[in-house]
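INTERNAL AUDIT FORM
Audit reference: QA-55
Scope: verify that the stored structure record matches its stored sequence.
Auditor: D.O.
Record contents follow.
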Amino acid sequence: MMTSRLFRRILKALGLGAYFTFALGPIVWIAMMSLKNSNDVIASPPKFVFTPTLENYKAITVGLDAHDVETARPDYPKYFLNTLIIASATVAVSLLLGTFAAYSLARFSFRFKEDIAFTFLSFRFAPELMVILPLYVVFQKTGLIDSFTGLTAAYQLITLPFLIWVLRGFFEDIPREIEQAARVDGYTWWGVFRRISLPLVKPGIAAVVILSFIFAWNNFIFAMILGGERTQTVTLGILGFIGYERVLWGHMAAATMICVIPELILAFFVQNYIVRGLTFGAVKG
């Protein structure tokens, strides 16, 4: 009996080890590359024991010798700031519009409600390449190419449908009896929404905001086609380290590690907010 339990524990440990190696292996490898010099990065076989250096991070943040192609800095801090502005504005607009849309779809009955909800969802399912051409034509005629406003509007196709559908589920989880009791006490629908429903779905709002921010942060296609030098994002800025004669792997790895820092921080906290059914049992009948 003890041998069987020990065997299962060993198998479980080996399985978890294999999973973490598969999941975290690429991140660890890139982190190691970011701390190597140019010779260690391209060494064959790969070096696992080396002297760490922060020169790659220094090169892409404060720059070194601008005349040396190996240490010349693309404007990566600017790209990081651009991405932060675009992703934050995208989430803010999606949250403002999507919260009201989600509540309306969850609580009110009107004609074609489910058709409208499915239309929102279809935007999330549609491939980005399918909508990029008409968007480019519209943006070109309206002067929105390479603008923060244009990219924020385009990113709504990524974040808004997701936010509406997730928040709709959270609002539907709230027992109607709670809102009806508030109505009896004299609250208007706006008062019920602001004072009762909205506070109850705060964990859902936090989770969907974090995930929407990650989706906007990682976008590549919209930023590449609809953006430009003024609004270039980190996903495109990393490509600046690929030159005609060589690839600056160390610089690219350092830029990648800096790029994922906001996502890692947000992903660490997302587990604390994904709480479903938070009001189950709140009303006894």
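Auditor finding: record pair retrieved intact. The radius of gyration is 24 Å.
Action required: none
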